[in-house]
């Protein structure tokens, strides 16, 4: 095992997680809350969808345009539209800001936003105790 392999094994996220679980006085693995990232419990965050469903009344124009583009010159073709969605403006805005901030530090880089989370409104979910 080389030095780099030892470092990778010693300081990887999975090794750190294992050390926390194995440490005396730490909660057991069954009692640990699932996390979306270290220190961010999954039950306090909700994923922002990349696409939002469209009202069924607005499906017809989208279906006609998509069918016309897909069919092209082949009139005998058949197209079935199962779902129509629109891009979520909140998701787009956050993705653009995050990639712009990342590109500011590393100009010749590219980024792919996989998921975006927002913190849940915790005030509305808790009841006031008298």
TrEMBL record:
Chain segments carrying region Disordered: 1-37
Domain of life from the UniProt record: Bacteria
Composition skew (Basic and acidic residues), residue ranges: 1-12
Official protein name in the record: Uncharacterized protein
Annotated source species: Enorma massiliensis
